[in-house]
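Ticket #4471: structure export looks truncated?
Reporter: QA, pipeline team
Priority: medium

Steps to reproduce: submit the single chain below to the structure queue and open the exported record.
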Amino acid sequence: MRHGERDKILDAREAWRVPLTPRGVTESREMGRRDLAPLGPAHIFHSIVGRCRQTAEALHEGLVIAGAKTVNHGPDKRLTAPFLPNPPVSYAYAETEGLDSGRFLEVWFADQLPPSIAQPAREAAEEQMAFLEKSHETHGGFQIHVSHDWNILLLAWKFLGLSPDQALWPNFWEGLWFLFQPGEMSIHYRNHSRTIPRNQSVAEPHPTTGP
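Actual output as written to the record:
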């Protein structure tokens, strides 16, 4: 899921410093208490960026208030932007080329970025999915991974065949749902869904929905 409501980002190169708003903290806590607690014992993981940590901590607090068992496993770099070899360089490239976030993703997904700017998108998506599958195998149960819009859109593009247009951009607190079952897993984002065999998540999306 994407982190909670944040302050406005004025400089992409300083984006990692931008925290949640007070509402972002309050609503994250309430989401944990009201919406997530009924789903059972929870394992929480989050990006190393501060606003994701704030979101995870507030969700954890809400779950605890509701009496739900929960473990906050802390930060993991794989939920940040492991696909950008040097984020400041990537952001500077986007600025120089006049690429906003949406256009940057379109160019990236079309394999038109040099590897010094971004890891090949398909490879990056497969690594993200492998991380999620491994986390499920290790911890099981209901898991919450607090991450960023680009991570969500990368997986939605690769495994649901969705283009990164503004209409599909994840809102704060929004994300993909994964349901793991014996032999298969289903992926859901808004009104889009797909079921794929377990351990074969590198398969292409259905050709009628591909980019």
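Status: closed, not a bug. The export was complete when the record was re-opened. Leaving a note from the reviewer for reference: The CA atoms of residues 106 and 112 lie 9 Å apart.
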